[in-house]
């Protein structure tokens, strides 16, 4: 049976970079990488602790932010436990937590949710800059006094995309400010804005933005992944659940130097069937059988991650999946990307005609005698490439895997490497909620002690007065002390 815990023990080695690039696109190579990466995640060798661990700072922070944190921390200070591990006390009080942080959290959320970000695009490629500079110079030439006098004499008005008189441009400085402020947009810039706005609409960007803000307030960390809809071709951002994110450690707050990233997603078999039409009916039936008894692990995940399980994950029976229609059964999928250094061999030489000759050859190619006689030499080119996989955990099945078609090379100050589609960011300091936890615990502890003191107060005429009420009380020009009262 498939299990989420089987990779918490044992050694799983990453495949070597010194592998034929053609073999790296096969499932054998990518599965070995997936198992090694997932084992690192499961054995707490990544930034975020594995979600099946008993303790999770993410679950704790989220609980405090909503006022639903456990009461056990306060009970540990004030109560004893019997041999069965149950709390024993004579304190007849309410153990309910004082609801403080949730009010603060809602106030901050209200401020953040009122903020919206509009798309602003300005192309800086040489061709676009040249076009804009030409338009700017022409406008400055057009509004020149001598030009206007000449045009008036010949009675000619040139056609302009933007006429200075229509927007109140009178001087050359006005024209410069107009272009610097982005007053003129080219068609490619307009198209880029439209594409970005459509991505925001498709992804329900406002909802994702609120989740990002909540994560930064609660845990000081959040993430997203760029996706492409295979049917419509639309690009859009997708929220990544931090409790299920597999990210290596990084010295940068934006994780620009990581070479792999992933997340554990729980997908229904119906969703898998849509994304992986190559899986047969027998494969889907096998998944529904193998993951039917994974109920306890789902419950641990829901508790540790601070995420409410769906009804399909809590059906009665042998496990979470028992009795659930197959299309709605949840299956763990490890969605990940990684960079690998590929070695490509090239034969190169300068022919007798003086023409330079080069040709890419196979990974296992060695120079033949004829090639050596011609004076050919072997050149090894190393190129960093991006690979991906959507692996159904514990099985030999992939929803999809291979070499990414989007090899977008950028310079991050570490050389030209492809950019991962995962993006993570952290505040670097403690989150707002994490800073408040100790203070909230102290307030709750004092509240329970005060409740116990009030309940144990002897009958009248004795009474209890808060010390703060008696401070700075002036009577007959004299500040009163406790003894005076």
Description of the structure:
- With 485 residues, this protein is an alpha+beta fold.
- It contains 16 helices and 15 strands.
- The chain has helices spanning 27-42, 57-66, 72-78, 101-113, 126-142, 145-154, 164-167, 172-180, 187-202, 205-218, 269-275, 281-290, 295-305, 369-373, 432-455, 467-470; strands spanning 80-81, 87-88, 221-228, 235-239, 245-246, 260-268, 330-350, 356-361, 377-392, 398-403, 409-411, 416-418, 422-426, 474-475, 478-479.
- The strands form five sheets. Strands 5, 6, 7, 8, 9 and 10 form a six-stranded antiparallel beta sheet that branches. The chain has a three-stranded antiparallel beta sheet with strand order 4-3-13.
- The chain starts with 26 loop residues before the first helix and ends in a 6-residue tail after the last strand.
- Mean pLDDT is 81; it is low at 307-321.
Keywords:
485 residues; alpha+beta; 6-stranded antiparallel sheet; 3-stranded antiparallel sheet; 15 strands; 19% strand; flat
């Amino acid at each position: 049976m498939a299990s989420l815990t089987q990779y918490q023990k044992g050694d799983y080695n990453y495949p070597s970079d010194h592998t034929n690039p053609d073999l790296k696109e096969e499932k054998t190579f990518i599965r070995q990488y997936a198992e090694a990466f997932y084992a690192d995640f499961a054995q707490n060798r990544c930034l975020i602790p594995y979600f099946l661990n008993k303790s999770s700072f993410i679950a704790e922070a989220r609980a405090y932010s909503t006022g639903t944190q456990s009461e056990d921390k306060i009970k540990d200070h004030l109560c004893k436990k019997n041999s069965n591990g149950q709390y024993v006390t004579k304190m007849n009080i309410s153990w309910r937590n004082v609801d403080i942080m949730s009010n603060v959290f809602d106030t901050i959320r209200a401020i953040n949710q009122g903020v919206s970000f509009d798309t602003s695009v300005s192309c800086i490629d040489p061709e676009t800059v040249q076009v804009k500079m030409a338009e700017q110079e022409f406008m400055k030439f057009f509004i020149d006094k001598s030009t206007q006098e000449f045009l008036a004499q010949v009675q000619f008005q040139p056609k302009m995309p933007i006429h200075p008189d229509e927007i109140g441009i009178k001087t050359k400085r006005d024209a410069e400010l107009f272009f610097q402020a982005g007053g003129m947009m080219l068609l490619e810039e307009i198209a880029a804005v439209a594409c970005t706005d459509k991505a925001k609409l498709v992804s329900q960007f406002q909802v994702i933005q609120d989740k990002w803000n909540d994560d930064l307030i609660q845990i000081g960390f959040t993430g997203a992944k760029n996706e492409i809809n295979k049917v419509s071709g639309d690009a859009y951002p997708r929220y990544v659940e931090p409790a299920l994110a597999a990210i290596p450690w990084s010295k940068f707050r934006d994780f620009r130097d990581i070479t792999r990233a992933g997340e554990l997603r729980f997908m229904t078999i119906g969703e898998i069937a849509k994304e992986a039409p190559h899986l047969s009916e027998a494969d889907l039936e096998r998944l529904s059988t193998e993951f039917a008894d994974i109920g306890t692990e789902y419950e641990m995940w829901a508790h540790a991650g601070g995420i409410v399980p769906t009804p399909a994950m809590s059906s009665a029976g042998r496990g979470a999946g028992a009795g659930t229609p197959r299309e709605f059964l949840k299956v763990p999928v490890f969605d990940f990307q990684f960079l690998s250094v590929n070695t490509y061999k090239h034969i190169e030489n300068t022919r007798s005609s003086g023409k330079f000759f080069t040709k890419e050859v196979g990974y296992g190619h060695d120079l033949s005698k004829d090639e050596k006689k011609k004076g050919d030499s072997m050149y090894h080119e190393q190129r960093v490439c991006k690979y991906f996989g959507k692996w159904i955990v514990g099985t030999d099945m992939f929803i999809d895997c291979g070499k990414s078609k989007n090899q977008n090379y950028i310079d991050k100050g570490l050389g030209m490497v492809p950019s991962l589609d995962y993006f993570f960011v952290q505040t670097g300091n403690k989150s707002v909620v994490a800073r408040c936890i100790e203070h909230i615990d102290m307030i709750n502890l004092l509240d329970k002690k005060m409740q116990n003191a009030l309940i144990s107060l002897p009958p009248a005429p004795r009474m209890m007065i808060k010390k703060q009420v008696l401070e700075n009380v002036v009577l007959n020009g004299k500040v009163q002390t406790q003894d005076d009262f």
